[in-house]
Design goal:
- The model has no long low-confidence stretch (mean pLDDT 95).
- The protein has 289 residues and is an alpha/beta fold.
- The protein has 9 helices and 11 strands.
- Helix 5 crosses helix 6 (174-184).
- It has one domain (2-134, 215-285): 3-Layer(aba) Sandwich (Rossmann fold).
- Strand 5, helix 3 (105-116) and strand 6 form a beta-alpha-beta unit.
- Strands 1-2-4-3-5-6-10-11 form an 8-stranded mixed beta sheet, with helices on both faces. Strands 7-9-8 form a 3-stranded antiparallel beta sheet.
């Protein structure tokens, strides 16, 4: 179900909602927030699993990604602006409280939402993101986002992903790489195109070895009352094992899952990961069935 709302500056924003199966009149809500250059299609298999267990699931597209409009000013592709868009979207789409699943940048948004509006967040799933972000992983992203946006066909798109991410996802076969490509690319009259505004690359242009990276530990520590499930890809270059272990030490109500044979960020396709998220969501919603 495609949905839309207007940001406070009038930009048209989009989301996709999967309605709960066999649920009552007020099913518990799940909000999915994607990574920096990603879109709501990343959550389709997981959303279907959650909907089958009685959850309404909504995945938002940030401005400049997926079906949301591009912004004429790339400086608005910023955490602060996106946070305002998320709050506006929750109001417009009628989501007063939700379990929030955030992949990478979406996990930062999940933590910030729990900090500023704890009453709106029943639980948080962090998918391969933590309070300390590894510089090497950020540099890898900076070298790819906004570059080589087009592909002539699906096999070519899949091959480009394999060339860039084989170390992160060593277990993917040809079908898996094409499935991955169909989440990231969209068909246009001019061929396949990565489904985001290429100007997003400007947000990472000032990243260098000396740049001071944001410290999210104060945010993380402030939301210790919020139930947490943290996922880490075993090959991740953005979330270290040390940070992952420290997150578990600091949070009294946290669960952890390492997703084997995947890196940044786990694709959320496999049954083990989906079951962990569904069971966590049921716990947060007080569902026993």
């Amino acid at each position: 179900m495609a949905r839309e709302w207007l940001a406070s500056d009038g930009l048209r924003l989009a989301a996709t909602t999967w309605r709960a199966k066999n649920a009552g009149s007020s099913p518990p809500q799940v909000l999915c927030l994607a990574g920096l250059s990603r879109n709501s299609r990343d959550f389709t298999p997981l959303a279907e699993a959650l909907a089958a267990r009685g959850f309404d699931v909504t995945a938002m597209d940030y401005r400049g990604r997926g079906r949301s409009d591009h912004d004429a000013d790339w400086r608005n592709y910023a955490i602060e602006r996106e946070a305002e868009d998320i709050d506006c979207g929750l109001d417009a789409l009628g989501i007063p409280r939700a379990i929030v699943i955030g992949t990478s940048r979406g996990g930062l948004h999940a933590m910030l939402l729990a900090l500023r509006s704890s009453d709106r967040v029943a639980g948080v799933v962090l998918n391969d993101i933590g309070p300390t972000i590894e510089r090497d992983g950020l540099h890898r992203l900076a070298g790819t986002i906004g570059h080589t946006m087009e592909a002539p066909d699906w096999p070519s798109a899949a091959a480009r992903l394999r060339d860039a991410l084989a170390e992160q996802f060593p277990g993917l076969d040809d079908a898996g790489w094409e499935r991955f490509a169909r989440q990231l690319y969209v068909e246009t009259p001019d061929g396949l195109h990565l489904d985001y505004d290429e100007k997003l690359r400007h947000t990472l242009e000032d990243l260098d070895r000396e740049a001071v990276l944001p410290d999210f530990w104060p945010v993380f520590d402030a939301i210790r009352a919020t139930p947490l499930l943290a996922l880490r890809g075993a090959h991740s270059d953005l979330l270290s094992e040390e940070t992952f272990a420290e997150m578990m030490r600091r949070h009294p109500d946290a669960q952890a899952l390492t997703v084997e044979n995947e890196g940044h960020a786990p694709l959320l396709w496999d049954a083990k990961t989906q079951d962990a998220i569904v069971n966590f969501a049921c716990r947060c919603a007080g569902k026993s069935d």
